[in-house]
Specification:
Belongs to the class I-like SAM-binding methyltransferase superfamily. Cation-dependent O-methyltransferase family. With 259 residues, this protein is an alpha/beta fold. The chain has eleven helices and seven strands. Helix 3 (46-57) packs parallel to helix 7. The termini are far apart. The structure holds S-adenosylmethionine.
Length: 259
């Protein structure tokens, strides 16, 4: 039990935060209420509603039309934390420059970024996408297959990253990762990056792209990247997906392999 005196001591801080960030609090709670109301009214989850829209507005086998349908839904109707078109273009450019053959994605959600990456990969490339939430993974699987990518190109693994990364060599036969896209829970960025460093799967020139490093932010991850001396790195400034006002960034890391 927190004593009332301690509670009172924190009151000015709580009030200051509430006043300073009231705009975000209001937006957040409004979004939660609207979402619960829509869930009850439709009997579907937010991800299933987005998928229904994609199914009726996209062309099977045409990845662009799937991305366009998601973007239309998420910018006009209901927010989903897909990487979105603006940051997506940064991802597209890096993939076309890097031409990676073995790619790992951490956090597929509905499969938007998975499809975005799969369509930009060179012939013979393979993308391993991890998603730990069963319901999200079920949607992602349908979206990936709707886009026309079979299991030889995209393998969706339904499991938390900390259980899969140590098994990438033994169970999936990987020897090197050319490109890693991190877009899962931000608290997992640092432990997963360190696990990848220890796995021996990163080689000189392997690229890691981490989304949302400024919002919601991954300060411990950035501190490690700055201090460890293992990477050349930069942050691409952008705004949060499907928003104009909230500043965000993607960290691009190129593994140098030497301390
Ligand atoms: C921001 S969404 C991913 C969005 C997706 N990359 C896109 O742009 O379309 C984050 C997803 O990561 C998943 N996730 C979070 N932590 C994870 C972990 N440790 N391992 C696997 N998936 C994780 C969540 O379930 C959620 O679906």
């Amino acid at each position: 039990m927190v004593s009332p005196a301690i509670g009172l001591a924190f009151l000015p801080l709580v009030m200051t935060l509430l006043i300073r960030y009231r705009f975000y609090f209001v937006l957040f709670y409004r979004a939660v209420l609207v979402r619960v109301w829509r869930d009850c009214r439709t009997g579907l989850s937010r991800e299933e509603r987005a998928f229904q829209y994609v199914l009726t507005h996209a062309t099977p086998g045409d990845p662009e039309s799937i991305l366009d349908a998601f973007d239309a839904w998420c910018s006009k109707v209901e927010f989903i934390s897909n990487i979105g078109p603006k940051k997506g273009k940064i991802l597209d450019r890096l993939l076309s420059e890097q031409r990676p053959l073995t790619v790992l994605e951490l956090g597929a959600h509905c499969g938007y970024s998975t499809v975005r990456m799969a369509r930009a990969l060179p012939l013979g490339a393979r993308l391993y996408s991890l998603e730990m939430d069963q319901n999200n993974a079920a949607i992602a699987e349908k979206v990936i297959r709707l886009a026309g990518f079979d299991d030889d190109i995209v393998e969706l693994i339904v499991c938390p990253s900390d259980e899969v990364i140590p098994r990438l060599r033994s169970d999936y036969g990987l020897e090197k990762l050319d490109f890693v896209f991190m877009d899962h829970w931000k608290k997992c960025y640092l432990p997963d990056l360190q696990m990848l460093e220890g796995s021996g799967l990163l080689g000189k020139g392997s690229m890691i792209l981490a989304d949302n490093v400024l919002f919601p932010g991954a300060p411990n991850f950035l501190r490690h990247v700055r201090r460890c001396g293992l990477y050349e790195w930069r942050v691409h400034r952008a705004t949060l997906e499907y928003s104009t006002g909230i500043r965000d960034g993607m960290a691009e890391l190129i593994y140098q392999g030497t301390k």
